[in-house]
Structure formats: C-alpha cells, structure tokens
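REQUEST FORM: STRUCTURE PREDICTION
Request ID: SP-0412
Submitted by: Lab K.M.
Chain count: 1
Length (residues): 177
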Amino acid sequence: MMRFMNPVLSQFPLTRWPLLLAGGSLLLMLGAWGFEYIGGYAPCALCYDQRHIHMTVIGLGLVFGLALILRPTLAKAAPWMIFVIAAVLIYSAGFAGWHAGVEYGWWPGPETCTTTGGTPNIDMSCLIDPERDCPPVVLCDEAAWTLLGISMAGYNALISAGMAAMAVLVGLKGLKS
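STATUS: Completed
RESULT:
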C-alpha cells in the first residue's frame, strides 16, 4: 500500500500536509455551504455537528501548518501534528457514518431531531403564527440528498475516512524519515 501511495505522499513536503488536510476540510465545508445556500438544502442538527468537526480540522491544520512554516525547527513534530489531525478525521468519519446510519434507518438517532419520538427543537411561535418567517424543521433521519444511494453524510464519512487514512500514511512516512 505504501508503495502505491508513495508518489502522492512525496508530492508535498511533510510540513505542508497540515495545510493540505485543512484545505480538504475546507473543500467539504464549501460543498456543504453550496448545498445549503445555492441548492436550498437545509442542514439538520447532526449536519451542523459534522461541520464543527471539519472546522476543528481547519483550525488545527492552519495552526500546525503556520507553526511549521514560521518555526522550521518544529519539523520533527510534524508527524505527530498530522496524527492529531488524523484522529479528528477518524472521529469525523465515525460520526458521519453514524449519521448516515441514522438516515438509512440502521439505528435510531437522537430523539430531538428524528421521527422516532421526543420533541424536535421547534420555535413554538412558528406554530402559532403562520405569517412568521420560520426556518424549516429538518429531521436527522431523512437524507436531504443522495447520489448513487449515498447521502451527504455518507459521502462525508467516506471522504473523511480517506483523508484520515492519507494522514496516517503521511505521518507514518514522516516517522520513518
């Protein structure tokens, strides 16, 4: 596997990988915002949680990346910085996979944003006054969009897992050099 990945891994210096991983999460965020603001797909509560995880990756990537640029002596710590980002991406993949499972009905989701029970977070004044401009109620167990049977949460899980695997491989390569 490493032999196959070597051309990709050696394309960029180890010290730039935190910025590349931050860029990957930024692209996912831009995609999510595009679906929301251009496509009109309102995100659910779990979608927002997934965005926060990618914002963490962006923040860590920028801090680590800038630290490695400004203090080249930190280059020995670069693999460990990449492993920290990889850990967040693994969490992102797991969380997004869990959310996709909720959408597909494989397991129950939180009662506050699914049709399985509980009380969704609804502004009661929106129910009383239909003239009021209220946001739509978005349920976490209904996929707003799918492509080839995979929801946005499913794609987030796949892309996050791929980014995490890449980060782990880069970190391992960095430890060996």
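NOTES: The two ends are 17 Å apart (CA to CA).
Reviewed by: T.R.
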